[in-house]
Structure formats: C-alpha cells, structure tokens
Design brief:
- This protein is mainly alpha-helical and 578 residues long.
- It has a domain at 14-130 and 144-149.
- Helix content is 65%, strand content 4%.
- The chain contains 24 helices and five strands.
- A three-stranded mixed β-sheet has the order 3-5-4, with helices on both faces. A two-stranded antiparallel sheet has the order 1-2.
- Strand 4 (345-349) and strand 5 form a beta hairpin.
- The longest helix has 39 residues, at 183-221.
- The radius of gyration is 24 Å and the shape is globular.
Length: 578
C-alpha cells in the first residue's frame, strides 16, 4: 500500500485564503476599542458578572480570532512583505492597546465586592488575579519589540532554501532525504542542510542576542530576578518547580539515554555501520534496521487527508465528522512550498470554534504521524470549545495541551490497515515507540539549555557561550552520535530551534505529555473504548480544572520523575521487537 513516488503538486488554496481573510477595518484598534470602553464603563456588581463576562468573552474572542488569522497568513507567506507588514502593524498598534484594556477589565473584575466565581471559572479567576499582578505598562511596549524579534526568526527560516544535487528544496523536502537507506544520500542531504543552516546562522545569532536582552528586561520590569522566574509566572507553572525539571533532566540522562543508545546502536549494527554519524540519526524517524526504503504512504496532501479521514472513521464517527468539517472548511494547509514557515502547528479561531492545521508534508510516514498529532490538537479545540462558552476555559494548561495530540498518534495505530500492509504497519508502530524514547533526550536537552540560559548564564552571555553550552549538553544527551572529524560548529548551532526563539520554556511539556500518551495507549490496549471515552472527557474539561485533575480524567498520572520514566521505558522496551 506504499505509494511509489512523491508528487506534491500545488493545491487550490482559495478556501484557505478565504478562511484567513480579515477585512481591513477588522484589523484596526477601532474595531475593538468601543466594545472595550463599554465594558469598562458599565456598572458591575456580583450579580451582573456572568453577563458582563459573556460580553468580555465576545470581544476577547474576536481579538484572538483576528490575531490568529493574521499570524497564520503571515506564516503561509513569509516571502510577501505586504502580508508581513499587515501582521506586524496589528502586533504593534492593536495588541498593546488590547493588553492595556484587558488589564483594566481584570482589575475591574477583581475589585467587584463579594464576587465568588462559579466553580468552572474559579481557576481562571485565580489566573487573572496572578496575571494582573504581573502586569507592567513598560512590558506592553517591550512586548511589541519581543514579537517583532521573534518574527525575524520565522522570516529567516521560512525563506530558507537547500541546494542538493542541483535541486532547490525546502527544508522539509531536504530533511526527507535523511530517511534514505543509502548512506551516501543521507550524508549529502545532511551536508546540504548544514550548509543552508550556516547561511542563516549569523542572522539567527543576532536575533537571539536581541531576544535575550529583551527577555531579561521583561523580567526586570516585573521586579523578578531572572527571565526564568518571569516566564514561570507567565506560564502559570504552579504544579512543579525548576528543581523538578532538573531532576527530570537527570532521570532522562540515566534512564532514556541508555535505552536510546541501545536502540540506535542496535540498528547501526544490523546495517553494518561502523558508528552512528549525524546523518545516521534522525530522532523523528530512526533508520530501518533492514535497510528498506522509507515508507511513502501518499503522494499529495489530498491523499493524506483522505487516508486520515478513513482512519478517523474507523476509530470514531464523531472524530471523523470533525475532520471532514476541517477538510470542507479550508482549515487544512498541508503542502510544503517556498515562502511557507517550515514548522507544523494547529491554530485556533475561537469565534466559530474552528481549528486550523498548518503542515509541510513531503509524502512520508512521519507526515502521517504529524497529521494525527496536529489534528489531535484540533479535536481539543473542538471539544473544549463545545463544552466551554468562555474562551479562557478552552484548551488547557500547556502541561496537558500536548496529550490530545500525542495520544491521537497512538489511538490511531490500530486503524491504519488501509494505509499500510501488516508489515508496514509493524514498521510504523515500531517507529512511533522508538520516537518516544528518542525524543526524551532531545526534550531534556532543550529544557536544560533554557534553564541555563535564563537562570544561570549572565545577561551578557555571548554567542560562543551558547554554542559551548549546547555542545556540552549534546555530548551528555546524545553521546552515541559520532562527530569525529566533522566541523562541530554545525553541532554547536543545534540551539537555533523554533521553540528557543518563539516559545521560551515551552518544551518539557512535550515530554510530560508523551509519557502520559504512552500511558493512555497502554490502557487502550486493554480497554480501547474506555480509553477513548476518557480522552474525550478530559478534552471537554478545557482549562477548568488543575493539571493533575486533567491527567486523572484522561486516566493517567501527572508524573515525570525517575521511577515513572524507568517504568515507561521498561514497558516500551517490551513492545519493541527483539
């Protein structure tokens, strides 16, 4: 059932463009200012809070909706100055005014005498109180600078090209060549990617130094000693501490790194490789131990959509209906093409409770997994939006938000008989399990780097310091990759990664959620219907309960300690072929 070639022809994007269209007048502050002013001027007592909150919810949803559409449109057109300028104008002129207005509304709500929030709003009421205390006017203006600096990363990497064997490829297209069973082809692709990355490295160095300065200033403005302290409060991390994260780094080093090494070195031995070189290791898709060509289960984005819809129909009728809604509504843009941001994500438009998935597919089995991942996020948006009228109560805290996506990678495993032959499905399943193990060292390295950068390194840290720290961590968490004789300046720039620029400190959550998703899959082996019911029930809770309660609703524990990691690594090892 494997497709024989990759032919990702350009699709008709008119529906996507229509979905992302924002009329000019709707992206100006005047479109929102009157509604905010009415809320601020309205008399408010405890009895009137629910109706007032509904009005606030409506204008906040409209603002988020507009920002999300403009941001996504900019990511689809990194090579169009007019699109970039429109989004940056919105960020610079509208969002600061909205942030000030939102702060004023929080203060108005917090000052209402005798108001006791309803149980489903109590958690977000507490979050509003904490956010209001963290607010600083100076950070509103500085936030515009911060967003503009982050956007420089998107533009630089979105316009990146790779030259390989006389062809010009996008980054995702070039990365696909790393799955080749031909070692020489993998090495050529790796070297071409490395050369492309060198071409933007100096620019990204400058962006990072600017971001570091801005982030330290954000912390100082909020009277906090480090950016880690500041971001800890921004992210509302109340259920664990930096010390817990450091313990996680050590547990991964001692429990997951050795298992990853055994898996990778075992594959290398079967392939007759003398050692594992950088082009022999792709954490997202380990080499096939029999040297078989990578699975290519589809050719076009439309084919990928169809195979996914069939899988969802086999899993659950309502999930399939939600996905059909996305297909019909211009809520999917899957193909890789020049001028498109190279990452994959799920965006959300709250006014109509619509998620939007952006990807860069190249026809690989990894694309299948990533689509299920991103659509799992979309299901989270759908279900929490259905159940929770208030936008603040939708989605979930970031410590849970990757569970709907990662669990969907596992829950679809038994519903892919139309995509893969039994032998191919075994390969796909094995890669899924290997991917969990291989991901943990990367996640620990990413998190450890940011703890060092924003709590231990001086504010005056230099690029050479960043490179040196990354090398140190890479040798700790990926000691099985042999870089002998290679230019390690390439290795040292591994920190030039999306989340370090765009979402500081948002990475350990992927590891937490992968551990939980593995637990959900383990439960689904014994009770698939019950696991799916718990999955949906936890999504409907949105952000109305704490992180530990959300995990319990999904049927797992909120844990990422050494004993828990050791137990899950042992379970995964029993599921891998001997």
């Amino acid at each position: 059932m494997t497709a024989t070639s990759t032919d990702l022809s350009a699709p008709d994007l008119s529906a996507v463009e229509a979905k992302l269209h924002v009329p000019a007048g709707n992206s100006r502050w005047e479109a929102f200012s009157g509604r905010y002013r009415d809320l601020l001027d309205a008399p408010l007592d405890a009895a009137g809070v629910p109706a007032w909150l509904a009005d606030w919810n409506a204008v906040s949803s409209a603002l988020i909706d507009t920002a999300s559409r403009l941001s996504t449109h900019a990511d689809l057109h990194t090579d169009r100055p007019d699109v970039q300028e429109r989004y940056q104008t919105f960020v610079a002129q509208v969002l600061p005014e909205a942030e000030r207005a939102e702060q004023a509304l929080k203060e108005k709500l917090l000052a209402v005498p005798d108001y006791v929030p309803a149980p489903e709003f109590a958690l977000n009421f507490r979050r509003m109180r904490d956010a209001a205390a963290l607010y600083r006017e100076a950070n509103v203006t500085l936030g515009v600078t911060h967003e503009a600096q982050k956007n420089r990363y998107s533009v630089a990497t979105g316009n990146q090209k790779v030259t390989l064997n006389g062809q010009t490829l996008t980054i995702p297209q070039a990365k696909q060549r790393l799955d080749s069973p031909d070692r020489a082809a993998r090495e050529a692709a790796w070297r071409a990617l490395s050369e492309s990355n060198r071409g933007v490295a100096a620019e990204l160095d400058g962006v990072m130094l600017d971001l570091i300065g801005t982030r330290w200033q954000l912390a100082r403005n909020a009277d906090l000693p480090t950016f880690r302290d500041y971001q800890w409060r921004v992210l509302d991390r109340v259920d664990y501490s930096p010390a817990d994260c450091h313990a996680f780094h050590e547990a991964v080093r001692d429990e997951a790194v050795p298992l990853t090494a055994r898996i990778v070195q075992g594959i290398a031995a079967q392939l007759g490789l003398d050692s594992v070189r950088p082009w022999d290791y792709n954490r997202n898709s380990l080499l096939d131990p029999q040297g078989r060509a990578p699975l290519t289960p589809f050719r076009t984005g439309a084919e990928l959509e169809t195979l996914a819809e069939t899988a969802f129909a086999s899993l659950d009728a309502d999930l399939a209906a939600r996905f059909r809604q996305m297909r019909a509504g211009g809520l999917l843009d899957l193909e890789s093409r020049p001028g498109k941001m190279t990452h994959a994500y799920c965006q959300y438009f709250p006014t109509h409770n619509e998620p939007f998935v952006l990807m860069n597919v190249v026809g690989s089995a990894e694309d299948v997994r990533v689509l299920f991942h991103e659509v799992g996020h979309a299901f989270h948006g759908f279900y929490s939006g259905d159940a929770q009228p208030l936008v603040w109560n939708r989605w979930s805290p970031i410590e849970f938000v990757e569970i709907p996506s990662m669990a969907m990678e596992f829950l679809t495993l038994d519903h892919l008989g139309h995509v893969f032959t039994p032998e191919e499905l075994d390969r796909y399943r094995e890669k899924q399990l290997q991917g969990v193990v291989a991901f943990l060292p990367w996640a620990a390295q990413m998190d450890a780097f940011q703890h060092w950068l924003y709590a231990e390194a001086p504010e005056t840290v230099m690029v050479a310091d960043l490179d040196a720290k990354w090398l140190e961590l890479d040798r700790t968490f990926h000691p099985f990759v042999n870089w002998e004789g290679l230019d390690e300046t390439v290795r040292a720039k591994g920190w030039q990664y999306y989340h370090v620029f765009q979402a500081p400190f948002y990475y350990i959550e992927y590891a937490m959620c992968y551990l939980a998703a593995t637990g959900i899959w383990r439960a689904a082996q014994a009770d698939p219907a019950g696991a799916l019911d718990r999955y949906r029930a936890s999504l409907r809770l949105g952000s109305t309960v704490s992180v530990p309660e959300l995990y319990r609703a999904a049927g797992v524990e909120f844990r990422f300690d050494r004993a828990y990691i050791r137990g899950l690594m042992a379970f995964i090892e029993t599921q891998l072929p001997r």
